């Protein structure tokens, strides 16, 4: 039976201290699996991707301890299951 790989995608909202928005955005640019999707009035919306819920949680924890961050909260998580291909065709197709 083919191995099912998982890919986790999460959105999060980060609240920053007054005047810290730019420094937090600069720090987030250094995260490989984090993409900023918007920011306004001290809040930042990001998407975090990884192979497991644990990786997402670890990333969110690393964000929450950045200088200038008040809070970092996961809003949504989605899991994609991918199966191996056999002879060039996906094995999870109906």
Automatic annotation (TrEMBL):
The keyword Kinase does not apply. One of its GO terms (cellular component) is cytoplasm. Its main location: cytoplasm. The keyword Chaperone applies. One of its GO terms (molecular function) is signal sequence binding. It is found in: Cytoplasm. It holds the Pfam family NapD. Keywords: Chaperone, Cytoplasm. InterPro entries: Chaperone_NapD_NO3_reduct. Transmembrane segments: none annotated. GO terms for biological process: negative regulation of protein transport. Chaperone for NapA, the catalytic subunit of the periplasmic nitrate reductase. It binds directly and specifically to the twin-arginine signal peptide of NapA, preventing premature interaction with the Tat translocase and premature export. HAMAP family: NapD (MF_02200). Belongs to the NapD family. This is Chaperone NapD.
């Amino acid at each position: 039976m083919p191995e099912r790989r998982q890919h986790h995608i999460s959105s999060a909202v980060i609240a920053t201290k007054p005047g810290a928005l730019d420094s937090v955005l600069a720090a987030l640019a250094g995260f490989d699996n984090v993409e900023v999707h918007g920011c306004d009035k001290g809040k930042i919306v990001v998407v975090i991707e990884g192979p497991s819920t644990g990786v997402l949680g670890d990333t969110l924890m690393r964000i929450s301890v950045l200088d200038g961050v008040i809070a970092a909260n996961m809003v949504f998580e989605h899991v994609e299951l991918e199966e191996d291909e056999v002879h060039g065709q996906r094995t999870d197709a109906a």
